[in-house]
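Before going further, learn to read the protein records used in this course. A complete example follows; check for yourself that the lines match position by position.
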Amino acid sequence: MDSVSNPYTPNAGASPEIVVGRDDQIEAFRVLLQRLERRRTEQSMIITGLRGVGKTVLLGQFGEIARAARWEVVEIEASKHDESRFRQAMFSQLKSALLRLSPRARWTERGRRAAEVLSAFAVSVDKQGAFSLSWDVEPAEGLADHGDLSMDLTDVFVALGEAAEEQGHGVALLVDEVQFLGRPQLEALIQAVHKTVQRKLPITFVGAGLPQIAELAGDAKSYAERLFEFPTIGSLSGDDARKALTEPALVEGVAFDEDAVDLAIDITHGYPYFLQELGYQVWSVASDARVRREDVELAREAYEAKLDGSFFRVRLDRATPLQTAYMRAMAELGPEPQKAADVARVMGRESSQLGPTRAELIDMGLLYTPEHGYAAFTVPDFDRFMKRAVPELVVPEVQRRKRKDE
């Protein structure tokens, strides 16, 4: 069929033609905004889930909802930055939000105060000494200048929230890949939101991240579990999975046979990204306006090759030989979460020897810990890919450290 009219969007963070199965989270976000507008508190949320389940897409939906409600939206993809870089990124984004709330020529006392607090926040210290970002507003004294990230960001959130409230708007900070925030940065965000909740200000932080983020947030601040909900999203099931595959095609006048849909769901397990990728490949091989089971069977090889060459491969290519061996050993044991001791046994090593490797893979976002002592892949079907990409488990030899006199 015509590739231009292909309705499937297997791209990172790209919103599909039809978003299904996320009604509860979307409604919870609407309620959050509406309650904050009425100066009523409500738990914010951090969406958790594996790669490819639509967390970024859902954050995009939240952004559209917030903008339609005339809120200012700040969208950030977290990365591993030191405090200075984090301050720069936050300053730049929040300054833009303040200017959208009110042009400088129309600043009230609250608006100017928020700008002054932002200026103070922008001043930090690195190894070369103090510096300030370009912003011709004098910094406030005694606010956001404590030298403590949590206290400083709290002052910024309060000042910006007060300015937004005066303008009859709100500010929604949407942060993707929350697990890559350093503990001080996550702690600062949680503490800042906590203070705005106490002040009943229309500013909030909503995030998305891998499953370990609930534990990380709890470690950062013990009250995080009361401040946030941590809804988990996963594969689509039943009618939702069928709608995600068939309804985009119906818009283009193309229908799926029931047995074709059944096979597609069986292949993809209902994971949103996989459904989009398989749908895209099926569209390429189908010859007319009816998709048959044989079309899905024919598209399966191209579907797996595409996933292997991009979605899966980019993750494996980042791994060292020992990290690769660890993941291959996990795949040998199956798709379920695996005990560290069992993985070490398959590799012929002791758990203590492999602890650093396991920690590195978690830090890279390739594994997460669903419970103490266990690890699981952050990507669906990664065990099957590892067996295809690395047919034999090869464990590198232990590198013996040389003595100083050698």
Notes: The chain has three domains: 23-229, 236-315, 318-389. The mean pLDDT is 90. The longest strand covers residues 203-209.
